[in-house]
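Appendix B. Chain record.
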Amino acid sequence: MRHHVDRALEVYRSRGLGDLVRTAGFYLPIELNNLLFRARYGSSTLVMEEDWDTLILLDACRYDMFADQIEITGDLQSRISAGSTSEEFLDRNFGSYSFHDTVYINTNPYLPKLDLDSGTFHAVVDLLDEWDDELETVHPETVVEAALDAHERFPNKRLIIHFMQPHFPFIGETGRRVSAKGWSTGRDDGVNGETVWQQLRGDGDGPAPDLELVWTAYRENLDIVLSHVQRLLRMIDGKTVLSSDHGNMVEERLRPIPSRRIYGHYYGMYTPELVKVPWHVIESEQRREIVSETPIEQEQQTDSVVEERLDALGYQ
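Structure tokens predicted for this chain:
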């Protein structure tokens, strides 16, 4: 709720009472539905309190998609994520804490944006400089190579391996037919109608992409990243969990208090499509002996690179 109150105050200061009323009309149903969601589903999961040696995060992966497409042997459960966006998930799980027994392999620009890349973990393997300029994201193969190297360098640390897929941009053969930028941060004033989700809402200048094509591309992105995850799993030891930071709305409405159809993901909006995430447990007879140690010194990511990556993903 605090995020939405801060947003309302910002609108009032910058755009006046009229726009404040319009903004309140957007946020009030969200907050009422959030209260009902929490009453039904309870509190969210803090991932660092769970039992695992390796946590693999598939960015923006809906539970229903994952359940339909996963072919990796394991125990499929679900959890309620601490956030409906990457920013909220990262801040609530890792902000104001330290986890010096953990190494984070990162592809998400919000980790350095929130200053979580210095002192929060024992080490952060930042892959934002390994950006594929053609795809405008980090390729999953790059993540696998970095994760295997980290597993070798830090054998007594927990690993968090954060893939950007199935998050847009869609990198498969079908996905490249979807001409749009990435995700919106959920601002009601948008980012010039450039994201695929805004185009589906009809906010862009041109025709909206075909919804079936978008679903196919979205699912294709998940298949692609899972194929790389399978390779990774063959080469690391310990108990592994496959999960996600948040999901995505694709034409659903808020409920039980109805709303317009929603595309993308919004900060502080709690629905099953957004915060019910997979928790796929892959047990192992061999567990790593985890040790906490002083963080290693490393260079932080520059602001300019962070902003460029956020823009490429549609966050600006």
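Further analysis of this model is presented in Appendix C.
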